[in-house]
Amino acid sequence: MSLKVLLFNPRSANSKPRIPNSILQIAASIDGRHEYIFVDGNLEADPQKKILHYFKEQKIDIFGCTVMPGPQLKQAIPISKKIKELYPHLKTIWGGYFPSNQPKSVLSSGYIDYIVNGPGDNTFPQLLNAIETNSSVEAIKNLIYINEGKLVKTAKEELLDLDKLPKLPYEKLNEFYPLQKYLGKTYLGNKTIAYHSSFGCPFTCSFCAVVPIYNARWKGMSAQRIYNDIKFLKEKYKGDAIEFHDNNFFVSEKRTVEFAKLIKDEKMVWWGEARIDTMGKYKDESLALIREAGCKMIFFGAETGNDAVLKKMDKGGTQTGEQILKFAERLKKFDIIPEYSFVLGIPAETEEEVDKQINEDIEFIKKVKAINPNTEIIIYTYSPVPTEGSEMYNNVLASGFKFPEVLEDWVSPAWENFDLRKNPLTPWLKPYMIDKIKNFETVLNGYFPTQSDIRFKKWQRSFIRTWSGLRYHSGFYKFPYEIKALQKIWKYRQPETEGF
User: 150-153 and 143-147: which strand pairing?
Assistant: First the structure.
């Protein structure tokens, strides 16, 4: 006997759909043991209708849902709730960063039974076996559930050898949704592949949602395994570019160089995420090879130019403001575009200090652009992450900040903006500070339109840049209504909303 599982990927954004690697990873773990169905909210006009149709036509035993913070909650919450109302004996399992970081509100909702807290390659099939045999789940690692009214977190499992995991069932997904629909036109190419080559990150940044899940651990596939998968997707589905959605693709210089040598002759363009202090140690010949092999842009968490704040973020000691500037300049000679993200609005002892830090970060961003104008800049406002033992998070709690206790509250507009790190409900960040950050971002994107918005025409870039120049150089960012109007009319998308 086997169970029937429906795996749901809620709609994640208003941009193009990407290969749903999270649910494919889970599907691979049960392939051949249990039947499964895919529903992708990114490709369904009404995913709830599609899901309920499957429930009426077939006996579904398990509803599995991957949930990242932000837009995915809009579908994940109401659909999970509706299914539980109609089928109360069904077991509902959530995975992803959101439930792992907010387990109390998720499990107290009454319609989520289990949370897979990290990789589910062993956890998910073991949980299905326990459900099928009505046996205990307490020995299953990477699991969160409620037992006798108490929240239970089981032990963390060691990260697995990714090369030994089964291949993702791309062809099974293709039976439900043509895989070509996931290979869209982007800044990188005409048919861009979304791919995960590693789990976790070996660092402990105090504002990062990855840290509580992986506890400073990282494990990557071999360069050969990555190449084999990419080669298959290129030959079978005509993929011509790659977005590596790893938390930190470039941890190992040796692995990166090996992959670059393998992929070089395939003429593919690619992008990934890295740390400045890690890649700063790469040899010049490694960076040259990476560019020659097709790496066009790399995302870095610059965060701030203030060394004291970097230390608060648990990035101090290994990353400095001077290093951020020098590395942007260094990448220029290799023709690799650095994509720097900054986190503004870090808590401080006084309102004046918070505002001062914001002003300093704005000036620092302008220094980066002066050194390397091609540097892409993404600006976020600081949103707390429940990292136990972090001094920054303890200060956040002391300020009176609280996360919602009721799951449905997370789909309110205010908390959605919190999840997107655009307008957090933090008591130390005042409305005028948020306006200042947003206005500067508008002017910055007017003077330096992102290259990743492939629909933005050359003449539009030239016009809006000329219009924004006086504001940018004079430092007058207030009320940039004319720039906002042009961006709206021309449907300009900033780097974080375009995503490529």
Answer: antiparallel
Of the chain, the end-to-end C-alpha distance in Å amounts to: 44
**Which one of 197-211, 254-268, 304-318, 383-397 scores highest in mean pLDDT?**
254-268
Q: At what angle do helices 431-447 and 458-474 cross, to 10 degrees?
A: 130
Q: Residues for the chain: how many in total? A: 500
pLDDT given at position 212? 75
Residues 239, 189: Cα–Cα separation, whole Å = 9
Coil, helix or strand for 465? Answer: helix
Measured between alpha carbons, how far is 382 from 365 in angstroms, rounded to an integer? 16
Strand ranges inside 96-191, DSSP E: 114-116, 143-147, 150-153
For residue 181, the SS3 value is: helix
Scan for tokens 């956890």, then name that residue: 123
Tell me if the pTM is above 0.90: yes
Cα(273)–Cα(246) distance, rounded to whole angstroms? 7
Q: Exposed (0-12), middle (13-18) or buried (19+): which is 135, by Cβ within 10 Å?
A: exposed
C-alpha closest to that of 21 among 33, 2, 34, 38: 38
Beta bridge partners of 92: 63
| Phi, psi angle pair for 342, to nearest 5° | -125, 145
Q: b/e for 112-134, b at 16 or more Cβ within 10 A?
A: bbbbbbbbbbebbbbbbbbbeee
Residue 69: C-alpha distances to residues 38, 229, 355, 403, 470 (Å): 21, 28, 27, 13, 37
Region of poorest pLDDT, from 41-45, 174-178, 324-328, 402-406: 402-406
Coil, strand or helix at 266: helix
